[in-house]
Amino acid sequence: MTNTPQKDSVRISEAAHKNHEELFPNHKSTLKVTDPELIEVFDNFAFDEVIALSKLDTKTRVMLILASIIGSQAVSEYRVMVDAALNVGVTPIEIKEILYQSVPYVGMAKAFDFVHATNEVMSNRGIQLPLEGQSTTNPETRYDKGLAIQKAVFGETIDQMYERSPKDQLHIQRFLSANCFGDYYTRNGVDIKVREMITLSILIALGGVESQIKGHIQANLNVGNGKDILLDLITQLLPWVGYPRTLNALQCLNEVVNKPNS
Q1: Which of 31, 165, 224, 232 has a CA that sits 20 to 30 A from residue 155's CA?
Q2: pLDDT-derived band at 199, boundaries 50, 70, 90
Q3: Nearest-5° Cα angle at 166, 160 to 169
Q4: pTM (2 d.p.)
Q5: What is the pLDDT confidence band of residue 160, given thresholds at 50, 70 and 90?
Q6: CA proximity to 170, closest of 138, 211, 142, 178
Q7: Mean pLDDT score across all residues of the chain
């Protein structure tokens, strides 16, 4: 029997330690004890190497990671990251808007546990629930307002979707306008540029939805989030969603920005 040499300590870079402490001040990691090599590799990559390439501010970056964690269905990590988000200035309303924005994309069955996790973290932090309402529509206005913002984001594509839809499927287009956009996109709490980045982050993490990823890459470009911002977004999600989904998103980005008249 031979003894495997052990490292004296986990060698986390100064930058990685600083960036980690910003999110998780005074956190005592049990994994540094049980899985020191994994933590050394991950922390140096996610909290130093990847962040060093980013021009996104900490708050925005954490919001996008939080959105991707919902798409990844990682409830335990989500609880930890909600606390981190609050630590770096993401407001409770912004966290709720990330969560609510996920519902039409992941479905309520997948969002349900995240609603409870969010409420548990906020209650433990002394945040009184419910938060101030952010809805701007009602049953009478949701379709018209939703269609208006849908067209503002996607342009003439929306008219084409309605025109090309078989009559027996037209109700789905109306649901998209009234529910996905009328009920969610019209809400206050985050602006349209951030909301589109949140949506794209959720879709990238979901995987298998490349058509929708391309659509929302174009939507991001339409609202002013340029290729450099979207490449930054994809890069920052890499440690959290993995290489396959990152490479798929990168391919979608390149296809959209390189297509004629883009």
Answers
A1: 232
A2: very high
A3: 100
A4: 0.94
A5: very high
A6: 178
A7: 95
CA distance 67 to 197: 9
Q: What one-character DSSP code corresponds to residue 53?
A: G
Contacts of 161 (CB under 8 A, 6+ apart): 173
**CA atoms of 201 and 163, how far apart (whole Å):** 29
SS3 call for 199: helix
Give dist(CA 22, CA 20) in Å, integer: 5
What does the alpha-carbon distance between residue 72 and residue 240 come to, in Å, rounded to a whole number?
9
CB 65 within 8 A of CB 239: no
Find out whether 200 and 208 touch, Cβ atoms under 8 Å.
no
Q: What angle do CA 104, 108, 114 make, to 5 degrees?
A: 105
The neighbour count for residue 261, using CB atoms within 10 Å, is: 3
Q: What does the pLDDT average to over 248-261? A: 93
- pLDDT for 260 equals 79
